[in-house]
């Protein structure tokens, strides 16, 4: 009787396009979780293009699972940026082979990317909608609306949508003034109700306030910052992705 030819089990894979706040965590698609070894859901290993491995802790929030502690080091080493495209191929236990594609749609040359960025950090690119940075060498400056910014580096965020970019200070915890051009572009005014959502799919509803002739976000901001475990020096980006819907992005201090 002829023996059946045994074929190795097919490796399961998923892909992620990097956008928004990916530097601290990255969500694993819910449909893919069933392919993981249930006994190994606390940690996994990511093997990069060089063959080097990183141990990454997995964080569960509700029925969602994220690459979390250790993911930041993987991001810095490769240096990943908005627009990169990653394929994660799993061995069925807890090892992922990661293939990285850049904006050219070809595999990313990590060594060349490090040389371009000048470090092991995230490759930073300036969006045309970001406020222009001063050429001054001063360590600090005051933004037009009085919110203190503590970094003169460009922010690694790009979007065709209107957005507000603020470096987190004690004041930003409680209020953020909305620039006039954003107020006009988004049709905002005092009393407008908006929804702010983060990358963990949590959401908050705020009503805009007025201070003299300016519009600002105030009530509820401290709760949003607390829920996302922000710290002074983090860059907080409020992106208007839909009418009255704001996507929250957080770029942690020291990652660019």
The helix content, as a percent range, equals: 10-25%
Radius of gyration: 21 Å
- Write down the overall mean pLDDT: 78
Sheet-strand content, in percent, reads 25-35%
As for the number of domains, it is: 2
Number of strands: 17
Shape: elongated
Oligomer: single chain
* Second-tier CATH architecture of the largest domain: Beta Barrel
Supply the CATH class of the largest domain. Answer: Mainly Beta
Main sheet strand line-up: 1-6-7-3-4-5-2
Quick structural overview:
With 256 residues, the chain is mainly beta.
Give structural notes:
The protein is mainly beta. It folds into two domains: 12-117, At1g16640 B3 domain; 141-251, DNA-binding pseudobarrel domain (At1g16640 B3 domain, Beta Barrel), CATH 2.40.330.10. It has four helices and 17 strands. It has helices spanning 71-77, 110-117, 180-186, 221-227, and strands at 12-17, 26-28, 43-47, 53-61, 64-67, 85-90, 95-101, 141-142, 148-149, 163-167, 176-177, 193-197, 203-207, 209-211, 214-217, 235-242, 245-251. A seven-stranded mixed sheet has the order 1-6-7-3-4-5-2. A hairpin with a 2-residue loop joins strand 4 (53-61) and strand 5. It is elongated, with a radius of gyration of 21 Å. Mean pLDDT is 78; it is low at 119-153. Residues 132-145 have a biased composition (Basic and acidic residues). Residues 117-145 are annotated as: Disordered.
């Amino acid at each position: 009787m002829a023996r059946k030819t045994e074929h190795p089990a097919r490796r399961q894979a998923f892909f992620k396009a990097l956008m928004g706040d990916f530097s601290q965590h990255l969500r694993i698609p819910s449909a893919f979780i069933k392919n993981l070894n249930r006994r190994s859901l606390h940690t996994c290993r990511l093997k990069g293009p060089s063959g080097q491995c990183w141990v990454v802790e997995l964080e569960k929030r509700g029925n969602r699972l994220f690459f979390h502690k250790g993911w930041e080091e993987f991001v810095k080493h490769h240096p990943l940026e908005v627009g990169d495209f990653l394929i994660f191929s799993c061995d069925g236990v807890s090892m992922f082979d990661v293939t990285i594609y850049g904006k050219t749609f070809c595999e990313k040359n990590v060594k060349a990317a490090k040389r371009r960025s000048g470090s092991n950090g995230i490759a930073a690119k300036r969006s045309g909608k970001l406020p222009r940075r001063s050429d001054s060498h001063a360590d600090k400056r005051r933004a037009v609306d009085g919110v203190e910014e503590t970094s003169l580096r460009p922010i690694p965020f790009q979007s065709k949508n209107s957005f507000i970019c603020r470096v987190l200070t004690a004041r930003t915890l409680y209020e953020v003034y909305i620039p006039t051009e954003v107020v006009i572009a988004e049709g905002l005014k005092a009393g407008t109700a908006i929804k702010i959502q983060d990358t963990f799919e949590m959401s908050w509803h705020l009503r805009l306030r007025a201070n003299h002739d300016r519009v600002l976000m105030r009530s509820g901001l401290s709760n949003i910052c607390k829920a996302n475990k922000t710290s002074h020096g983090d860059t907080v980006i409020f992106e208007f992705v839909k009418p009255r819907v704001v996507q929250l992005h957080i770029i942690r201090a020291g990652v660019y």
